[in-house]
Specification:
The protein has 16 helices and 14 strands. The protein has about 425 residues and is of the alpha/beta class. A hairpin with a 5-residue loop joins β5 (about 205-210) and β6.
């Protein structure tokens, strides 16, 4: 199992930080190791670099993956250190060369010696250089102040986010709030279900979420899948994500276009919220477009069209643009995106978002409404698009930005993703 995880991580190392989408799904130990390694990539590599006395990025990919996965298991997953070290050493001997086993043994035993104790997370955790956050709300105390002195760098490494992103959060929100947002990104997010008809209220595997109409699912995914098949109103969706479409509840559109529909979660929400509307959904990504076709095959009110076909439509009463973004409000759910943020990528995304808006506004009927949505906290991806929308449509926009809620160790009912939405 551990060997399978190292193999998978070794294949990802060359593309870091541009990691592909990682679906947590269901899986055993190997899948859990890969997910936790992705979630804590920067932190694990920082420890490896300190112990190896060289940049972890300079290590060959298989060795880098082996060391990182071992640190993730020992520090963040409660796997027995002796078993992890021994299996990782044997893997590197067998898969790389005998000398790699000696390096692995030395680096990992040094790191194990640094992990002094596991303890409850103190209130001042974000000010300390000797603590590593854990997803369960506890912390690992190190044998000394081994994390960087610079606050932003320290917080970014501990939570495994891009330093550039953490600096932005500090500048905009201050250190305490930035620390809370970063800590949220360490969480293992619960599986949340939109349950508007309380279909799951009697299930032993469902508990109420703090947002009405949502539940926390704790049971097997297969059982949830069966429930999803029995009630069309059920959907796996975070209440933060659902908030954007919920803002259109007072409208009565006849034709809705969900132009960046992904796998169709907001499309399903629209179908539930607007039972008299015809809905056209599409996505420019070929894999997601195929998933949409499968999900809505035979649906009486939802049709799936290509991006080209969507751009030819007119008379749209509600245009939903859930645009590609930095994902900075949902990084607990999208751990593969935690370290990739930088100013160049942000500028590229902002340009893409503006192009999507400009190319789709001609679809609107006179008086047609636009819902622009992101899962980002960054003002360039939310507030900054408002002047373009208001200028083109000639009316005022209503903007809403939600910060993610919940900290490691909190009740899952407190968890919610962040993001922004603009309605006009």
């Amino acid at each position: 199992m551990r060997a399978d995880a190292i193999d998978r991580l070794a294949s990802l190392v060359p593309s870091w930080p541009d990691l592909p989408f990682h679906d947590r799904g269901e899986g055993g130990l190997a899948a859990a190791i890969v997910l936790e390694s992705i979630r804590r990539w920067r932190c694990a590599e920082w420890l490896v670099g300190c112990a190896a006395e060289r940049e972890a990025g300079s290590l060959e990919a298989p060795l880098r993956a082996a060391l990182m996965s071992a640190v993730a298991q020992i520090a963040f997953m409660d796997e027995p250190a002796h078993a992890v070290v021994n299996e990782t050493v044997e893997w590197t001997k067998r898969r790389i060369r005998p000398g790699a086993g000696r390096i692995t043994n030395a680096v990992l035993r040094r790191i194990v010696g640094w992990l002094a104790e596991r303890m409850p997370r103190p209130l001042d955790w974000w000010r300390r250089r000797d603590l590593l956050l854990r997803a369960d709300g506890s912390a690992v105390r190190l044998d000394g102040p081994r994390l960087p002195e610079d606050f932003a760098e320290r917080l970014a490494i501990d939570s495994s986010h891009s330093t550039a992103l953490v600096r932005r959060w500090i500048e905009r929100h201050g250190e305490p709030t930035a620390a809370a947002i970063a800590a949220h990104g360490v969480m293992q997010p619960p599986r949340l279900v939109a349950d508007p008809r309380s279909f799951l209220r009697d299930s032993p595997h469902a508990a109420p979420h703090r947002d009405p109409g949502f539940a926390v699912w704790t049971g097997p995914f297969a059982e949830l899948s069966a429930a999803l098949g029995r009630d069309a109103s059920l959907r796996v969706q975070d209440p933060g994500s659902a908030r954007a479409v919920a803002r259109t509840a007072g409208l009565a559109p006849r034709l809705i276009v969900d132009a960046c529909a992904g796998r169709g979660t907001k499309t399903r929400q629209c179908a539930e919220l607007h039972p008299n509307a015809q809905i056209v959904a599409g996505d420019r990504d070929a894999e997601r477009a195929r998933a949409l076709e499968t999900a809505f095959r035979g649906h009486p009110r939802v049709s799936v069209k290509s991006s080209r076909e969507i751009l030819e439509l007119r008379g749209v009463d509600l245009l939903i643009l859930d645009v590609p973004c930095s994902n900075s409000g949902v990084l607990a759910r999208r751990p593969e995106a935690k370290a990739r943020f930088d100013s160049k990528r942000l500028a590229s995304l902002v340009e893409l978002q503006a192009r999507i808006v400009e190319s789709h506004l001609p679809l609107l009927s006179p008086g047609g409404r636009v819902l622009y949505a992101t899962c980002s906290l960054e003002p360039e991806e939310n507030e900054a698009i408002v002047p373009l929308l208001e200028r083109r449509l000639g009316r005022a926009a209503s903007i809403e930005t939600l910060r993610p809620t919940g900290l490691p160790g909190d009740d899952p009912a407190e968890y919610r993703d962040g993001g922004g939405s603009i309605l006009l």
